[in-house]
Every structure is written in structure tokens, then in C-alpha cells.
Amino acid sequence: MNEVSKIVTIAGLDFDLTVIGMTILTCAIIFGFTYGCSRNLQLKPKGKQNVLEAVIDFVKGILDSNLPKKEVGNYHLLAYTLFLFVLVSNMIGLMTKIEVHNASGVAVSYWKSPTADPMVTLTLAALMIILTNYFGIRKFGLHGYFVNSFKKPVSFLMPIKFMEEFTNVLTLGLRLYGNIFAGEVLLTLISNFAASKGIITFVFALPLEMVWQGFSIFIGGIQAYIFVTLTSVYLSHKIEAE
Q: Which PROSITE patterns does this entry report, sorted A to Z (predicted)?
């Protein structure tokens, strides 16, 4: 797939305008959804309030399975925001595709899922791992956190536990990136096939595109669920005494 993102260089630093723009759009969609569904709340929810509460309860269920009951409320908002960000980021690239060919004939993409970029997913994963360590320090203090996170149940496992902090970032970020990027690549290939020989290939490619769109939506939802679940598991290791 011969395409690139729109890159600008400022003060010697490269900025991916496609990813930045799609990330801002993702945040705007999440804010609009939450703001719109939380207006005029009622004791007997209906309509859009039911949708919002269903998402909140779903995320709360993830935390209930991995964190102590008394800690769920402390991290519910973080998990809710994380789940919606990953979910919308996964889905937004399935809506359409905007490409412009430059003078060199290279397709410059202006619309794609933010999570189809490894820097986004690895940065998000690293941020979550850093936060879990921060929450552990905040709860137990620096010494208590170090003992609980790295010296229990036995001290000789400390090197492995240090290594886990780095491997968790890689597995958390690359799993998400690989699934979303692969889905977008295949959708692009199907789209190119549909346009290759006119109406003949279009007829064959249309049902295939629809099936893969549905499968990609399913995978996007599953990956958002897995990302939040694993984050809550890593968090429980830091805030729960061994």
C-alpha cells in the first residue's frame, strides 16, 4: 500500500498532520457523545441517557473483574475515557478514505484511524504503564510501591518484573496497532480491486467489502475491550498488595 501521511517539519521536528487531525476529531466525537448524552439527566433514563449509562456500566464491569471493589470508583473515569478513545480511534478509519496523489504519484492519506499508526498505540500504551506505576507510588509510597511491585513474591524475580514493564508497553501497543492497521490495509486492497476493472470487479468486491467492514467493526470493539482490560490488570498489580 503505497501511501503516506501528511507530514510537516517545524523546527527540525516532523509532525504527522493526518494523525494529529484524526486524534483531535476522535476527541471531539467523544466529547460530543458524552456531552450530548449527559444533558438533562433523569432518574428514569431513556434514549441517549440509556446509551451513555450502558457504556459506563460496561466499562465498570471490566474494572470490577480486575480491581478491588473499593478502587473501581477511583479509576472509572479513566477507563471510560480510554475505552471510548480506543474504540472511536479504531472505528473512524472504517468510515471513509481520503487520499490525494502528490506530484511524485504517492498517495497522501488525510483520513485514517489514529490507532493504525504505531507511534500512537505505543505512546498510549507507554502512558498507561507510566500511570499504573504512578498510581502505585501514590498509594503505597515509593518504598512500598517498589517492594510490592518488584520484590514480591520473591526478590530474585525482580529483573523479570523490570523487563515486564517494557514488554507490557510493546505487547499492549503493537497488538492494537497490528489489528487495526491490517484491517485498513485489507479494506484498501479490496477497494482498489473494486476500481480495477470497472463494474465487473465492483460487483464482486462490494459484498467482500461489506463483510470485512463488519468484521473490522467487531475487531475494533474487541481491541478496545482488550486494551482496557489489560490496562486494568496492570493497574491491579500496582495498587493491590500481593
A: ATPASE_A (PS00449)
